[in-house]
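Q: Start with the shorter request: fold the first protein.
A: Done. Sequence, then structure:
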Amino acid sequence: MMPILWRKLENVKMNKTLMVLSLVVVSGAAFAQSVTVDGTAEAGYGSALFTQNIQTQFGDSNLGAQDLANGSEIDQVFGLNGPSRLAMTVSGNLETNFNKLVLFIDTGVGGVNTIGNDNVSSTDFGFANSLAGLTFDSGFNASHMLWARGGDTGGGNFQWFVSLAKLGNAGQGGADLFTVNTARNTGLAWTGSDAGTSSDFALNNVNSAGVTGGTGAASGSGVNTGFEFSMLLSTLGLSSSAPIKVAGFISGGNFISNQVIGGLPSGTGNLGNASMPNFTQFAGEQFVTVNPVPEPATMAVLGLGAAALIRRRKKN
């Protein structure tokens, strides 16, 4: 009876192995280029890379409208990296009063740990240089800055802007890469594209859940709508997929809120702008890492391996 029992146990182990391999192969379909950029993190993103742990001091939006918000918060962060694009959703709200959602991208190539005041970028009234002195966690070197903002430019004319800049001075290759400007589509999510770089953006402000107003402990779990983008890795100077770190926060001009990717200790209020924050003073990492998804060829090899195991098992 023992050999039969052993064979049954081996069958169970094999079935579990094949199930895991099958799940890995299926997950290969979740490539960044397959994402629909509509301001909603679809199931293909998988689990959130970060979930907010603190209430917002920039107002808790309760309008429930896709195109407008009366508060700003970061609830969760989702990301897909590769094989040829980076796609991310930062869920929550961005108030339509020109508050900014600012994302810093560390490609692993060059970059700065502390933002200087000699950036070539002059977009948005020299916004990059207004952040001079901002210091990231040790090991995080921002090569690019992506920021979104929007509001009434006059007479009820709502406009939305997204800009991408390469940080640094002329010697470091600093540059303004593009700015996308789109008008409000009443009642619908904001969408826009930069044709020159094949970059797509969307902002869906419908969220009225997530964190509430204040500085206490909270959770942004369950929120999947907000700001979403997809861009070619080559736009970031990458020829292939590699781990990418992303830091960020919500601000009003250069007045930084307490809504920070990676989270802040409970009880922390807005960081302000009296002096730019040094994120090394806070526990943990104030950034997320978006790891590459396996290349299609790698997924094919895994699939062939699973098939070989099945054939071998049948022969036995």
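Q: Next, the second protein, separately.
A: Sequence, then structure:
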Amino acid sequence: MTELAGQATFICGHPKSGTSLLLSLLDSHPQLLVYPEESAYFRRFDRLTAGKTIEQKIDQAKFHLIHMFEWDAANPPPSQEGYPDRDYSAFSFEAANHAYRNWMEKLGFEDRNLLPAAMFAYGEISGQLSEQTVRWVEKTPYNEKYTSRIFKYWPDARCIQVIRDPRDNFTSYHKKHPDWSPFDFAYSWRSSTRTARKNLRRFGKNHYLCIRFEDLISRPAETMERVRQFLEIKENPAMFQPSKAGKAWHGNSMFGNRFEAVSSVPKGRWRDSLSSKEVRQIEAALVFLMRRWDYTLEEPVKLSDWFFWIDYVIDRRRRDRMQSASSEQYSHLEDEETEL
């Protein structure tokens, strides 16, 4: 099992791009140990525990890595707020915490083992960890931004990034974050998608794979075969039936749809959901990347829309620099207070 700790697989991509669907199609494959929830290891846990000892980090794992196994729909703890439909009452949280500490002892008290220990603890209490297991799988949006850390900890890791038509991606994401403008979203999608190309060049096709969400739902057999070969796992019919923690999964659509299998319904939803102005803004902002990923523009980009986008980018970068400087200053003041 110590060798298995290095066989990491990370699903990457922008939020609401289809990463959950891909995870669900890998969930029941007998050779994979798939974590049922987002660990947010790099985006949350790693930051919260920066500077702490390894023992302190292990203590924090029960609050930020394996906390979901305390979730009970009938008696929800505070950490379950926002996830009332998720129920892990069939698992013992105490058993998960005990298993986590045992796995840290087996793997070694190093930072690189904090996440695999959580994977194996889940696999142990769920019965999904077996001699057949050859890889473990974790999915958190924006994992693509942390590939330097990923490949430093796990040189044999594989990453799969899902790319989705930005118009459909915005349509879904805007339901969850109505305060985001088309340009706000485009700025984020552009960063994620540019990072995909950089990672592919940097780590190579044997370690980094990009797939389009539209191909996954329109040509699932062909697309999942690419995924299967990339992960070097055996063919299995479970790869075409979405599941979560071994149980049938009906999707996490922002439109309330429930699916029994892979469905192409989410494709092209933007046509009935976005205004012509929103479409123009997204296409003007992302025209070059959309062409790179074979997404057809609704109409030629107007120069005026493109200039509005450039103005947004200049202002956004200015605001980001100011926020970064403010954060550094605040951090410096905190350090001074600590010394005092």
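Q: Describe the second briefly.
A: The chain has one domain: 4-267. The longest strand covers residues 8-13.
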